[in-house]
Write a structure and sequence with these properties.
Elements: H1 2-43, E1 48-53, E2 56-64, E3 67-74, E4 78-82, H2 89-112, H3 120-128, H4 149-154, H5 162-180, H6 204-218, H7 225-237, H8 246-265, H9 272-288, H10 292-304, H11 308-315, H12 328-345, H13 348-361, H14 368-378
Parallel strand pairs: 1-3
Antiparallel strand pairs: 1-4, 2-3
Helix pairs in contact: 1-2, 2-3, 5-6, 6-7, 6-8, 7-8, 8-9, 8-10, 9-10, 10-11, 10-12, 11-12, 12-13, 12-14, 13-14
Length: 379
């Protein structure tokens, strides 16, 4: 009996040890790599805004020494967000190289100690793979939203492509038109914008383009949300250049705060710290200029806080004043937000109808799957 039970116990135990060891080595590899970037940045006087370890699964956040740290349960990928404004290209290059260099240093140390601890040979092999991050791999997904370190090194000396910049500025123009279309009652419009942003100003242009890049990434798929939020925080904390006309400054900051707030709470069960941050951001945006888009975002914040009655009040009448000028994705989001409230406080059938309407408009809406799961639970 003992002879037959022992193998049954040993097999899952060995599998568990292998899985835990694999997870631990990935964590060690990522921590060493990102620590190399962050330490080099600090030594070279480059501001470190945030460090992310991993890219999927539950996350814990903390702020240490002014650096926002975010650690995910699943350790694949990582990122160090820097304040690179005014930083020379040689310093940026050294920071990019430091991640792989840190992995190589750890690999060498482990090789020297392998006679004492043989398993360090495996750790050395894993860290030696850090040099592969110097292979120029273009952006894509959460693991490399900005491209590999090698890709960024390759593009340090390349000026931004003019068509891309022009496209980003067109996006801001469309946002200005969209904001001007908000006509729901009790919503004052934003101040009239200038005929065009002073993008020829050498201080204004980088700031405006950084805002546009963040907005594009925030409204893209969920793969890049975490890094887009970190980049958005860094831009939002910057002082807008003096060359921006105050109404245009308010317009950009409002849209940035709105996008950040919505992204922080549009995934199910976000961390409470993200919900609190989203509430602060959306209230800051409301101070600049109310609008139904912000009512929808604040309603989603209230849902995450379990304050469904307040969320219901915020969504009353918003859909009645829908404008064809608004993006269809915004309508789908508002329908899903309303549906989440109705599923918890009203009729599941009414919530199902809202889900069907949202799915017909935007079947890929980030909130749609959550709404349907909530309806299934509600019965």
């Amino acid at each position: 009996m003992i002879g037959t039970v022992a193998p049954l116990v040993r097999v899952p135990l060995v599998v568990a040890v292998v899985v835990v060891a694999y997870w631990a080595m990935l964590v060690e590899f990522t921590v060493v790599h990102e620590a190399g970037h962050a330490l080099a940045a600090r030594l070279l006087g480059v501001p470190v805004r945030a460090v992310r370890i991993g890219g999927r699964g539950p996350a814990a956040t903390a702020t240490i020494g002014g650096v926002r740290l975010r650690v995910h349960l699943l350790p694949w990928g990582g990122a160090t967000t820097l304040g690179t404004a005014g930083v020379s290209r040689p310093r940026r290059a050294m920071v990019l190289l430091a991640g792989s260099l840190a992995n190589v240093v750890v690999a060498v140390i482990c090789l020297r100690l392998r006679s004492v601890l043989p398993w360090l040979l495996l750790v050395a092999a894993v860290n030696a793979l850090g040099v592969l991050n110097l292979v120029p791999i273009p952006p894509g997904g959460t693991r490399r939203p900005s491209g590999s370190d090698g890709w960024q090194l390759l593009h340090l000396n390349r000026p931004p492509a003019v068509p891309d910049d022009d496209r980003l500025l067109d996006i801001l123009d469309r946002l200005a038109t969209l904001q001007a279309s908000y006509k729901a009652p009790d919503h004052r419009p934003l101040p009239p914008a200038g005929e065009r942003l002073p993008v020829d100003d050498p201080e204004v242009r980088p700031y405006v383009l950084d805002v546009a890049r963040v907005l594009v990434r925030l409204h893209a798929g969920p793969d890049g949300w975490d890094d887009a939020v970190e980049a958005g925080r860094a831009v939002f904390d910057r002082t807008p250049p003096a060359g921006l006309w105050p109404p245009d400054r308010d317009r950009l900051r409002r849209e940035l705060a709105s996008g950040l707030a919505w992204t922080l709470v549009r995934r199910p069960d976000p961390p409470s710290a993200d919900v609190d941050e989203a509430e602060s951001l959306v209230l800051a945006a409301l101070d600049l200029a109310p609008g139904p888009d912000l009512d929808d975002t604040l309603a989603l914040v209230r849902i995450r806080q379990g304050r469904f009655a307040e969320a219901g009040v915020l969504t009353e009448g918003v859909l009645d004043h829908w404008s064809d000028a608004w993006p269809q994705q915004s309508l789908a989001s508002m329908l899903c937000t309303k549906g989440l409230i109705v599923a918890r406080t009203g009729s599941p059938d009414d919530a199902r109808d809202l889900a069907d309407r949202a799915g017909a408009i935007d079947p890929d809406s980030p909130l749609l799957a959550e709404l349907r799961a909530t309806i299934a639970v509600a019965g």
